[in-house]
Amino acid sequence: xxxxxxxxxxxxxxxxxxxxxxxxxxxxxxxxxxxxxxxxxxxxxxxxxxxxxxxxxxxxxxxxxxxxxxxxxxxxxxxxxxxxxxxxxxxxxxxxxxxxxxxxxxxxxxxxx
Amino acid sequence: xxxxxxxxxxxxxxxxxxxxxxxxxxxxxxxxxxxxxxxxxxxxxxxxxxxxxxxxxxxxxxxxxxxxxxxxxxxxxxxxxxxxxxxxxxxxxxxxxxxxxxxxxxxxxxxxxxxxxxxxxxxxxxxxxxxxxxxxxxxxxxxxxxxxxxxxxxxxxxxxxxxxxxxxxxxxxxxxxxxxxxxxxxxxxxxxxxxxxxxxxxxxxxxxxxxxxxxxxxxxxxxxxxxxxxxxxxxxxxxxxxxxxxxxxxxxxxxxxxxxxxxxxxxxxxxxxxxxxxxxxxxxxxxxxxxxxxx
Lengths: 113, 295
Prior knowledge:
The complex is a heterodimer of chains A (about 110) and B (about 300). Chain A has about 110 residues and is of the alpha+beta class. Chain A has helices at about 5-20, 40-50, and strands at about 25-35, 60-65, 70-75, 80, 95-100, 105-110. Chain A has a domain at about 5-70 and about 100-110: 2-Layer Sandwich (hypothetical protein PF0899 fold). Chain A contains two helices and six strands. In chain A, helix 1 crosses helix 2. The two termini of chain A are about 30 Å apart. The model of chain A has no long low-confidence stretch (mean pLDDT about 90). In chain B, strand 5, helix 3 (about 145-150) and strand 6 (about 160) form a beta-alpha-beta unit. Mean pLDDT of chain B is about 85; it is low at about 1-10 and about 30-60. Chain B has helices spanning about 85-105, 120-130, 145-150, 170-180, 220-225, 225-230, 250-260, 280-295, and strands spanning about 15, 20, 75-85, 105-110, 135-140, 160, 190, 210-215, 235-240, 265-270. The radius of gyration of chain B is 21 Å and the shape is globular. In chain B, helix 1 (about 85-105) packs parallel to helix 4 (about 170-180) and helix 2 (about 120-130) crosses helix 8. Chain B has a domain at about 90-290: Rossmann fold (3-Layer(aba) Sandwich). Chains A and B meet through helix 1, strand 1 and strand 6 of A and strand 3, helix 6 and helix 7 of B. Strand 6 of chain A pairs antiparallel with strand 3 (about 75-85) of chain B.
């Protein structure tokens, strides 16, 4: 995955919001990552460690909330959670379903000084 | 990473050899320009100003109906943001989509691993569609314009995006590249994405249809190994079918695996080399174009 590019966008959003609120320093960045995005947590941490250097978040913590994949079965209307995109509905075993959650990639909040 | 200066920013994307942010586009205001001039020598003890017109310079006040599991450190305060990392790309993609719809242009985002036969498929498809259907191509690679040169042999207008180091096309690159095409003279626009079965899945370019290729030489289990790419495709094209007997391709298993990941995908089987399946593929494209061509 493009964790470096994603982290760059996270830092741009964070710095822009922090500046707009008159902050001088970012202490914590809280992000929400859907399990179905394919983002690798270790790569995200690594990208954060590399990229935060020259930003307002140079000393910041990264807090990641993961969101499991949630699906809605188009055949029997059951909603269920799953860790991957393979396989069928646990209720009716059919393979046709809609992804309802799990593709999130959001900056949730910041803690700033 | 930026290979030019190692500053941590992506390398400069080029469109037909020119820096992307110097390519005029009806879809991008120059206020959105990413200031990053590599022509001048510069030091890196300063910050890069990334003032972008599409940022939200205000906080979103909203009520919290949940408690956070921590309190800000003394002297710190919390800012609610709730902004998607993909928001800027998604907005640009919708702008592209509106532009394409207004022109009645059928736009396809063609994705696959490197070497699955995207360029060969497009070359043969364009030869069959022309001259009745006017086709343009935007093609993305990290480096070289080899694919653009192959596709230009068809006579179709082709714009090459060289992403430098980026592993996917994004909506702004497409918006810039479209500025190099006379889009109103076209009926179909193919966007040949960077060969990569992971990253392009997350980037909407504003296309009508996403087309994922699976060549018979890659193995039947590719859809299970890289589910998002196949999951988000409207059409899966199985390519190089002429090679199937030589690589013991298990067609039934491949179809079943695609079905497990994406039961709604339309499946097309072609050999660009022998022409097998190409007529069906082209008539499918023609049927997709009908709703686009309505005034």
